[in-house]
Design brief:
About 45% of the residues lie in helices and about 20% in strands. It is built from 4 helices and 4 strands, in the order βαβαβααβ.
Length: about 100
Amino acid sequence: MAADQPVVDEVLLTTVNLQSFDRERRRLEAAITSAGRNPAPQLHLSFRQVDQTSTLMVALLLALTRTAKRSSVTLEFVDVPAAVRAIIDFTGVDELLSCEVT
């Protein structure tokens, strides 16, 4: 990797439920905080393991985007399945908190 290319970490999201929500939120917020230490703080959140959506997913996305904003980390949502994309589009999370969805 060339020295002028930014370091971009990737973290996998999983389907969340009431039992796993806090654990996932803490794990992902730690990844965001870690990414904030990079010279060009950016983090890819991969949805390739997410197989369903819920209001908990929306709550998780809001919590993560808030943490990223506080840490000055640019989030990019990658490998977003159609169901999650529909939730993101419906809620406007990407527009409200400056996240990219690819």
